[in-house]
Specification:
- The structure is a single chain.
- The protein has helices spanning 3-11, 16-23, 27-35, 42-52, 56-59, 77-90, 95-102, 106-114, 121-131, 135-138.
- The chain has 143 residues and is mainly alpha-helical.
- It folds into two domains: 3-59, 434 Repressor (Amino-terminal Domain) (Orthogonal Bundle), CATH 1.10.260; 77-138, lambda repressor-like DNA-binding domains (434 Repressor (Amino-terminal Domain), Orthogonal Bundle), CATH 1.10.260.40.
- Helix 2 packs across helix 3 and helix 7 (95-102) crosses helix 8.
- The longest helix is centred in the middle third of the chain and has 14 residues, at 77-90.
Length: 143
């Protein structure tokens, strides 16, 4: 799922340890993300994308376009919350229906839409896949 992590790391000539240091994790943790054994947390995925100036959608295989997307590097919970809620309202999708689609609870959707919690990588990927919605757009990296 995250095969582009390794591709970008190799292209930049970095070791797993060097990328792990950039992300503030142990090499073994990063190795698990790179191999697909574990799912990289959304904040760390965004840090990776910002550091290497690549698209989140490229990293997760949603596009072949590696394009750089301007970003502050910060995750704005309000932006993510507002984009998620706006999408749901634009397409007349209830929180219950969205929760069912993402295989999570409706109270989780409430927390994501209020900015109380950042949507998890798993649910963000499912949202992107089910609704053909850009992860870069979801986090405000592109309009």
């Amino acid at each position: 799922m995250f095969e582009h992590l390794k591709e970008i790391r190799n292209y930049e000539g970095l070791t797993q340890k060097e990328v792990a240091n950039i992300l503030g994790v142990a090499r073994s943790t990063y190795a698990g993300w790179e191999s697909g054994k574990d799912i990289i947390p959304f904040p760390k995925l965004i840090i990776f994308a910002n550091y290497f100036k690549v698209s989140l959608d490229y990293l997760v295989g949603n596009t072949l376009n590696i394009e750089y997307v301007n970003s502050t590097g910060e995750i704005d919970l309000k932006t993510v919350a507002n984009n998620l809620k706006q999408f749901r309202e634009d397409f007349n999708i209830t929180q219950t229906k969205l929760a069912k689609t993402l295989k999570c609870s409706q109270p989780s959707i409430v927390k994501y839409e209020s900015g109380e919690h950042l949507i998890t990588t798993t649910y963000a990927l499912e949202f992107s896949k089910q609704y053909n919605y850009s992860l870069d757009k979801l986090v405000g990296r592109k309009k």
